[in-house]
């Protein structure tokens, strides 16, 4: 069961390899609003400066401005003096974008997803297709990493055995 935009959907596995199990059970809510916070936020606060967001997310101010410029951060409020004011919703979105980055999703696809999200519910199917395509890519990468891990484990066992071999032969 996968959660996409707040809707639970069954998605068939695209690989015959065992699929990694999620670390926590699905709660049926949108991952970008329910993701664990990367940095504790002050209770009752919903307006953050760019420097606070830098501290919370680990992103640079340059990256945050770039995200806004390319349309990945759809609308960041401004104070009366023109300073950016990020909301908790913006921070949740940045957590989700960080997850998309970890998947290897191209920035153009992330921007397209953000555009579709702004359009609304009529784009659910296209957003789902983008996420399913990314999911398939992640599953492929996981399989490649499992194969790589098996090779590393084999080599590690070989070298550990080679170090033990002289001890077995000496009496």
Order of strands across the main sheet: 1-2
- Based on helices, strands and strand pairing, what is the structural class? mainly alpha
- Note the beta-strand portion: 5-15%
Taking all Cα atoms into account, the compactness measure Rg is 22 Å
* Rounded average pLDDT: 81
Describe this structure as you would to a colleague.
This protein has 171 residues and is mainly alpha-helical. It contains six helices and four strands.
Which descriptors apply to this entry?
disordered N terminus; mainly alpha; two-stranded antiparallel sheet; 171 residues; elongated
Q: Could you give a short description of this structure?
A:
The chain has 6 helices and 4 strands, in the order ββαααββααα.
Ordered list of secondary-structure elements with their pairings:
Blueprint: E1 2-4, E2 7-9, H1 31-34, H2 50-57, H3 61-70, E3 77-78, E4 84-85, H4 88-103, H5 107-119, H6 124-169
Antiparallel strand pairs: 1-2, 3-4
């Amino acid at each position: 069961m996968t959660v996409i935009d707040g809707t639970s959907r069954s998605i068939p596995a695209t690989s015959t390899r065992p699929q990694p199990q999620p670390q926590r059970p699905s709660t049926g809510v949108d991952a970008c609003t329910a993701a664990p916070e990367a940095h504790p936020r002050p209770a009752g606060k919903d307006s953050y400066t760019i420097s606070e967001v830098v501290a919370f997310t680990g992103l640079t101010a340059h990256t945050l401005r770039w995200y806004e410029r390319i349309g990945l951060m759809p609308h960041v409020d401004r104070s009366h003096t023109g300073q950016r004011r990020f909301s908790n919703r913006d921070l949740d979105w940045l957590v989700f974008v960080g997850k998309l980055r970890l998947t290897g999703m191209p920035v153009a696809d992330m921007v397209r997803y953000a555009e579709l999200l702004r359009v609304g519910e009529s784009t659910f199917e296209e957003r789902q297709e983008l996420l399913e395509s990314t999911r398939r890519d992640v599953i492929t990468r996981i399989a490649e990493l499992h194969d790589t891990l098996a090779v590393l484990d084999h080599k590690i066992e070989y070298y550990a055995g080679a170090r033990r071999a002289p001890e077995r032969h000496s009496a």
